[in-house]
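Sample intake sheet
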Amino acid sequence: MKTGNRKYLDMLMQVRDIRKNYLAKIVTNPKGEEWCISKHLLAASMRLIEVGTKEQAKGNKKESEAYFKSAFDLYSLFFAINMKMISVEKIKESDVKKFSPLNKFSELVKKMVDCCKEW
């Protein structure tokens, strides 16, 4: 809206359709809030990466690493939910700030996406 160019709004719908199509391949048979939490976890992780990159460009290495770690934790939680390693209900029962499985899920995702390991 800042530019006044309606083409961006049209493009937004195309982006939304792409997101829906690919998310539907990952989030199969969502129960309860799995669909919503999945899209929010991915969106939040992307935004944290953007902020981390800006902080890194400013020379704020420590701050950028905190953003990147949080982004990866959210990304890992997305996969933990969608691989049925944990339920949304279990997460809702926990205090997210003290949610200890995040580290476990992050370690599992690191092992799953090890690009040096040939399957």
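Comment: Residues 17 and 23 are 10 Å apart (CA to CA). The chain has a mean pLDDT of 82.
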